[in-house]
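Ticket reopened. Same input as before:
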Amino acid sequence: MRIAFCCSHTKAAPWLDGFHRALPHASIAEWMPGDSQADYAVVWSPPQQFMDEQPGLKAIFNIGAGVDALMKLRLPPQARLVRIEDGGMAVQMAEYVCHALIRHFRELDCYEDDVRHGAWSYRKPRRRDECPVGIMGLGVLGERVAQAVNHFDFPVLGWSRTPKELPGVRCFAGEAQFDAFLRATRVLVCLLPLTPETREIMNAANLSRLLPGGYVINVARGAHLVDEDLIALLDSGHLAGATLDVFRTEPLPEKHPFWTHPKITVTPHTSARTLRDETIAQIAGKIRTLEAGEPVEGVVDLQRGY
Amino acid sequence: MRIAFCCSHTKAAPWLDGFHRALPHASIAEWMPGDSQADYAVVWSPPQQFMDEQPGLKAIFNIGAGVDALMKLRLPPQARLVRIEDGGMAVQMAEYVCHALIRHFRELDCYEDDVRHGAWSYRKPRRRDECPVGIMGLGVLGERVAQAVNHFDFPVLGWSRTPKELPGVRCFAGEAQFDAFLRATRVLVCLLPLTPETREIMNAANLSRLLPGGYVINVARGAHLVDEDLIALLDSGHLAGATLDVFRTEPLPEKHPFWTHPKITVTPHTSARTLRDETIAQIAGKIRTLEAGEPVEGVVDLQRGY
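Engineering reply: fixed in the latest deploy. New output:
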């Protein structure tokens, strides 16, 4: 069995070592143009040429959670595209979102700023029941985040394409219930896959339906958000702030207003990092399952886009 | 039934209103020197004179979690001293500690600092299994914090005076197991009551037993910590940082080195605020229970000091 590794911006050696250990009978190598013998591919943002040269691929494993970059390529028709599910990412996402939520709700950013200016300050505590948190996207990551937010006793709302039922979450589904979801949400968390339907979903019309003093946490994709609409609503005062981990162009361009906006916290796409050991173990397990002729979880519906 | 309200640094009117609504048949008023008719007292840092003038007190309710300030007073011998348990404080404590823990573990403070300097940076993710969190004090607050830290899959250790068993927590107890607890802890959280035994428990000898790169979160009392010992261990590099919410003198004195130390995050005693509505409801409930001749939870053991 041959595995081709084709991940941009990724040091190959430790991944190849890990796969050698996990699948000692497989042959795994970094892809070079012209290599076209692979049975399986492990990819991150591969070039079109890679796909064009792999007629025999049975499955393509994407080492991140979002497959939107692959949706732009022509894939070998018989190859299944398989996502990483969790692999240590869900708990990181829960951490990142809870940190941003608590920091905003408890005004810890303001207190730290006061301290930086030498001031011992007092702020009236906010009411938890007046801070409903709405999560868009209820897949593996969204569900884990909902559970964590719930743990801190916030009212939790969820919105997904198809109806779901989650303990402790007031669930909304589809276009029909989107308005009601937004109007009941103060802190909006985006964990949606990027598809033609969800692109620019956080625009002026939708963000202005959030409860006054709304807050945006984007940990999905930069293209879910209309950058200038967010800035306008922050500047008008309807929104109180935003924590953004993902951007239309990454790294965030040098002149982008997000870098210095006083109400925006920027982090460099670090909310849920691919953990090498966990990811290798998950992919190796799925390859073994496929080789045994059994179905695997996480196969992308190419029509739906995730 | 008469209730005396004697809380320093607290605006009395909204508390009195709340008690009037919760206990319409009681007479409640702010204490003035000379008033000595109270059956119950609601206090925060009252003067000795208040206690001396209340021969008929059945119970004293402290509106914070820590009763160390009251331990320094002579209390009327027949009065029970009753603590607030939770009253909305436990979830706040869980929030505050998880925020500080995640911020340190995920290096979000460093990323935000990089962004402030215009840098899109990369840091190697830390391993969760190498970041055991040790919680000193396993009362209502400590238990809630342990549960929250557990939720983010950190290894959790707990230390208490008397042996406890908590799900998901490796529990240590007493002097005999203190050394083993410290040597297995990377992030140390202090939630102990302040007693003669726990005063200055975070000193050079004990803090230097933490795993290298240790981190201190103090949300109990300033006197649990020897300030200069913490600074020495931060400056030597054995400890990586600290988040401190409580101090020997509050507000933290203007010239104190904690204000500007680059590895210390200071907040102005805001980790778990007394929430008025929740606290009034809890005290009113306890007064009704006592009046019915039944026992209440949270009675302080004056010998033990908490």
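The first helix of chain B runs from residue 12 to 22. The longest strand of chain B covers residues 2-7. Please confirm and we'll close it.
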